[in-house]
Amino acid sequence: MNTTIDRVSPEAAVLALDGELDASNFRELIATGTGLYADGVRRLVLELSDLAYMSSSGIVALHSLALIFRGQQPPDPEAGWAAIHAVSADTAEGTRADQVRLVAPTAAVESVLERTGLGRILPVFGDRDAALAG
Amino acid sequence: MTQLDDLLADASLASLLALASAAADGADIGITDPDGRLLAGRSVRSVAARRSPVTMDGEVVGLVVGEERVAAELTVLVGCALEMALAGARVQADRARVAQELSIGKRIQQALLPRRYPDVPGWTFAARYEPAREVGGDLFDLFPVRGGTDRIALVIADVTGKGIPAAVLMADVKGLLHSAIDNTDAPAEALRRVNSVLVIERQTPLFVTAALLVIDVATGAIRYALAGHEPPLVARRVGRVEALASEGPILGAFADPSFEEHETALEPGDAVTLYTDGITDARDMARRFYGEDRLLALVGGACGRPAETIAEAIVADVTAFRGDAEPFDDLTLLVAERRPG
Which of A28-42, A58-72, B56-70, B284-298 has the lowest mean pLDDT? Predict the structure, then answer.
């Protein structure tokens, strides 16, 4: 999978994913997000129109990014579920975790987001301008 | 005890030092620990000895020490050879550890597979479980609810991740689902309860998808609920295929999720197939996916056939599709058929 970073401002970056997100590369995506957050990015837009496929590892990566951009530790064997619950607790209370936004997922990726429930946690936009603005 | 200890027993080390010494006209060359204690080769006492560090992860783990008349480059060369050997040994150890993890994970999975199908008049069951090289953490289960004779539970689940953590969670979830179904009969409630346990009591970053069906064996009525899992497929004897869709998120990720529950019924000659994404995500050599459409078509072509035939047909088609491509995920199937007549 190819990743293109467009740092549109000190606080916002667009990460375009081209190819497939699976067990072989999901950790790299998390690492890229971690690096951007450390560099001051506080809004991450993931451009998914060229992402043909996402496996369950991709779910883990998106969850991790959502947490990282809330300033929390991504899940690891030591951190456990507590971090993820914080995100879903927010969602339950009505405040969305929208520091990470998705743009134009393909039908295949959309159906994974839909079926697993992850689509509730990460807002989806039709194009990158809308995602950057909102 | 030093990192070099594992290399000391290697005959190649003795050869390396002997050759280095010969290249220096028989001068003494030895390997010491960082404090100068001799580990291999010959001791060099001279104050003006040549010393070259052997480092690993930026830390000095040993010294190559040669007499003064040994060329500096030679001690450096011996040091490099040792560093390469250490790095190689570590790569091998990592690989061995990963392979062992996968192997143990697989054994845990195998140990948890149902040993026999329930003996239910009027019903036939078939299952297939083909583990991939990379352990994917699939599980299936079928059992009489509360050990009775009126209801059968069908379960299929898929844990993300690989190796031992995935297998351990799978074993955990299997027990939780079994108990939950025995305690509530209602698939949606069972998923809700298992989700609660995972959310409140477990410490794992892994996710689980699941499909739960409870069948009334006398009437063929099915209650079902899904947690982020592929909809099971009903093959109607009349020649129609239906996907049993139902809303509900993956287990363990949400604090208070809602799971839908739906009902359907199998008539005599109908069958229901539960599967995991190891089938639909199977790829051929050109990296194309097997996909839902192909599976639907295949099951459609097997309408009215016995459970074993359906299971065999699916496995055969996926295997044929995959060709020489390496299977990446477990292939797991469970079929329940209400026998005709």
Answer: A58-72
Q: In what order do the strands lie in the sheet with A124-125?
A: A2-7, A12-21, A43-54, A100-103, A124-125
Segments in chain B forming alpha helices (H) = 5-8, 11-23, 72-112, 163-184, 187-201, 277-280, 291-301, 307-322
Tell me which chain B residues have a C-beta less than 8 angstroms from the C-beta of A79. 205
Residues B98 and B119 in one domain: no
**Run of H or E residues at B45:** none
Instruction: Specify whether B85 is located in the same domain as B126.
Output: no
Structural domain tally of chain B?
A: 2
Tens-digit pLDDT profile for residues B149-174: 999 999 999 987 766 777 788 889 99
Partner B, chain A 22-81, Cβ-Cβ below 8 Å? 23, 53, 55-57, 59-60, 63, 75-81
B174 & B228 share domain: yes
B82 and B36 assigned to the same domain:
yes
Of B202, B204, B249, the CB nearest to A116: B249
What backbone torsions phi and psi does residue B164 show, to the nearest 5 degrees?
-65, -45
At A75, is the pLDDT very low, low, confident or very high (cuts 50, 70, 90)?
A: low
Give the model confidence (pLDDT) of B218-256 as tens digits.
999 999 999 999 999 999 999 999 999 999 999 988 888
Which of B39, B73, B103 lies at the terminal end of a domain, its last residue? B103
Same domain, B161 and B295: yes
Ranges of beta strands (E only) in B112-180 are 123-130, 138-144, 151-159
CATH class of residue range A2-133 = alpha beta
Average pLDDT, chain B: 90
pLDDT greater at residue B130 or residue B79 = B79
Domain that holds residue B93: 5-103
Chain A CB contacts of B230 below 8 Å: 115
Residue B19 located in a structural domain: yes
B182 has a pLDDT exceeding 90: yes
Q: Whose structure tokens read 């959309």?
A: A110
Q: What ipTM describes this predicted complex? A: 0.72
B288 neighbourhood in chain A, CB within 8 Å: none
pLDDT tens digits, A108-133: 899 889 888 888 878 999 999 999 98
Report how many Cβ contacts below 8 Å link chain A to chain B: 72
Q: Distance (Å) from the C-alpha of residue A86 to the closest C-alpha of chain B?
A: 9
User: CA nearest B112: which of B157, B59, B162, B45?
Assistant: B157
Is B273 strand, coil or helix?
strand
